[in-house]
Design brief:
2 copies of one chain form a homodimer. The first copy, chain A, folds into 2 domains: 166 residues, Rossmann fold (3-Layer(aba) Sandwich); 199 residues, Rossmann fold (3-Layer(aba) Sandwich). Helices cover 39% and strands 15% of the residues of chain A.
Chain lengths: 428, 428
């Protein structure tokens, strides 16, 4: 397998179309500013000439570096933590869909899909000789960056609102990041991070400005294709917050189709929380995105001001897909169903795509003969408070066997029948 | 690669030596009762004849089923969740040991090493046509069993003390287990589980009685050997609670040496918490184990009455190894050091082996030219309360860049120099 990597031919502003040579633009478009997020371009002819599906089939690489020929990094600056190549599980009849597949991205180093992006960001930072990495976050992106930076000995500066949940701050601190608790909102933390990054020249890990991070996220699509023997699914359900994951998901499927590794791009269904749906509104209205006040327990997709909405909606439209929303109650129910029927433990944002699929099946927009993939983007261990809301209650018993017998008889009478495999039932 | 599996030739009581044919004994020795835990025996000549290192080198299997010829299960009854084949990271100069390797077993389906054992237990349960699985637990073993059972559609009954931490109960419930909250201690829950298992004929997932679970745990050693190109380390540090992990670790190294895949068994160093060290006491005194009152924050190894102490001490002795203890403060410091220097986030029990190594290096019992492996057995996300104790505090700032500048100048003055790669410093 070719491991040279870095077949990047240039960068193109996805707003105005201006092109840049590799290395010419550090982050966003000079003309369009923060609104001009760049696309990374490759020499696909060259990639196609030197890299075949058979090379992948023979690869023993247990990370997403197996896709190096299609990534903007070189083999000599890869971080050590193992990102990607996560399992794709069959749903075993769940929702009466025989060809349902669930991508468990909690099995990444810091337990979320964000590690795919971070690993590429840190590889770029190492290649560019960065002295430190930085960002603003209270969630998965922050802990992911802190973890990868720790492993590479890169100082990490992270800006969080002072009222961020203590466990998330603890994870950042355990990874040795310098954590600034900013007296203000998340937006205040974001602004202060931008100023400090400018002032100190730290490497910026934000999908909002850094074009290379989406190149890490796209590998989730490459893996789904490879794990399905290079047959792309019919539909893929994706949780949507700031739009970066969806942007990457589209790019991955589009590039494998471009290379001829698959024969189509799946229909992409973006799922937002009802309480935070600015990308759905922009998609449906075909207007500019209007920020909203985020109100959902799915904190990892609670992006009221999504920065990558333009790239996300472009991808969905190109795929022939659509946007939908689900309620917080539907998200909690999805956590319980996923856990009980598949053994996959999701945080709220991680269960959101499955909640969307559940709703789509109920509405009759998914048919039984379709192959459907669902992204599970983060571990339920990151938010056990929400898990407790989803989980129901234990059966309280005394110390004697007769208590257990009585409880089981009562449960059997209530249920009518024993629980069956993949029945989609709740968690209690 | 031969995938027939199930080359089990018999079982032998590790106390009295009585042998059983495969399938003859369900759990422990008929003569010795609960004290007579069985060893699983294989036809090593047959394994050696049909399975070579080259077969492994060519294997693309991304789970511990790559070792099927040396496991008590067949390819036709394997559970779907992906256990094992976790990364082995180089410590990059940490503790001034160039050949330090850390096995990150948090990257298992339910985020702990226990999944290795559970996957084998559930495979046996499926092969034996069990209608349900059960156990007593408040921690990793319980959530592991519940997760694997959910994925296979097997009902799971779990007994926990009523005052068990809510997040751990929530995880069990999300996985759809029937959770009995027993009005009593963990020992009460254990006793009630045993009675109910007897009464209902559920499959028993307890390393204390089920001989096959250790066969899953041993794969962590097989992986370490393979990942080090079939050169066994000089020393391996292992956290010790009930003794099951150590029993498996020894068996894995011994079997690869027996097969000629490696040329020796490493010196095994068992590490217990100072507040719960009955196996260390038994090992040092060469007497029977005397149960103690467990008092340590490392809950996953807080086994005051360890059931597998005999097998564990036998393995350590056969390896030429030893037992040691560390304090809770040393465990917390190890969490911070591991996180900040390697990007690995450990729960207290998961950091205990590294705490032991740190102490051993300070005492001069590990030398710089030795190859040392350390087991990290569970994710820090399982116990963020302890992480918060280990993590230090963030830097509080206002919303202006001058606040950040002032804070960084102060930190630089305090530290004297910037943080360096793998310096072993704390997490703050």
């Amino acid at each position: 397998m070719a491991l040279a990597g870095a077949r990047v031919s240039g960068l193109r502003c996805m707003k105005c179309g201006r092109e840049y040579a590799p290395g010419e633009a550090a982050y966003t478009c000079d003309d369009c500013g923060l609104d001009g997020i760049l696309d990374v371009l490759y020499d696909y002819d060259e990639v196609r000439r030197t890299w075949r599906r058979e090379d992948l089939a023979a690869s023993r690489e247990s990370s997403h570096w197996r896709y190096l020929p299609l990534m903007p990094v070189s083999a000599d600056s890869l971080p050590s933590l193992r990102a990607g190549w996560t399992p794709l599980y069959n749903g075993r009849g769940l929702l009466d869909l025989p060809n349902l597949w669930i991508k468990d991205d909690s099995l990444n180093p810091t337990a979320s899909l964000k590690d795919r992006a971070t690993s590429v960001g840190v590889a770029r930072a190492l290649a560019e000789g960065a002295t430190a990495v930085a960002g603003a976050s209270t969630g998965n992106a922050g802990s992911s960056l802190a973890g990868f930076a720790a492993a590479e000995g890169l100082p990490c500066y992270m800006f969080v609102p002072a009222d961020a949940p203590r466990p998330k701050i603890a994870q950042l601190l355990v990874y040795g990041a310098t954590v600034f608790a900013v007296d203000g909102s998340y937006d205040d933390a974001f602004d202060l991070a931008a100023q400090a990054i400018e002032r100190y020249g730290w490497y910026n890990r934000s999908c909002a400005v850094n074009p290379y991070l989406v190149e890490g996220k796209k590998t989730v699509s490459l893996e789904i294709c490879e794990q399905l023997d290079f047959v792309a699914p019919d539909k893929v359900f994706v949780p949507v917050g700031d739009g970066c994951i969806m942007s990457g998901v589209y790019k991955g499927f589009a590039e494998f189709a471009e290379l001829g590794f698959t024969d189509r791009v799946p229909e992409l269904i973006g799922v937002q929380a009802e309480g935070c749906d600015p990308i759905k509104v922009a998609f449906d209205s075909e207007c500019e995105m209007v920020p909203c006040e985020a109100c959902t327990l799915a904190d990892s997709i609670a992006a009221g001001h999504p920065r990558n909405w333009r790239k996300a909606t472009r991808g969905i439209r190109a795929s022939g897909g659509s946007m939908m929303t689900v309620s917080d109650d539907e998200i909690l129910a999805a956590i319980a169903t996923l856990g009980a029927a598949t053994g996959i433990f999701a945080e709220p944002a991680g269960a959101t795509a499955f909640a969307g699929l559940t709703k789509a099946v109920a509405e009759g927009t998914v048919s039984r003969d379709e192959t459907v993939a669902v992204l599970m983007t983060g571990s339920g261990l990151k938010d056990t408070a929400s898990a407790m809301k989803a989980a129901g209650e234990p059966v309280t018993v005394g110390r004697s066997l007769s208590d257990v017998e009585a409880a089981l008889e009562e449960a059997a009478a209530d249920a009518g029948a024993p629980r069956r495999k993949a029945d989609g039932g709740g968690g209690a």
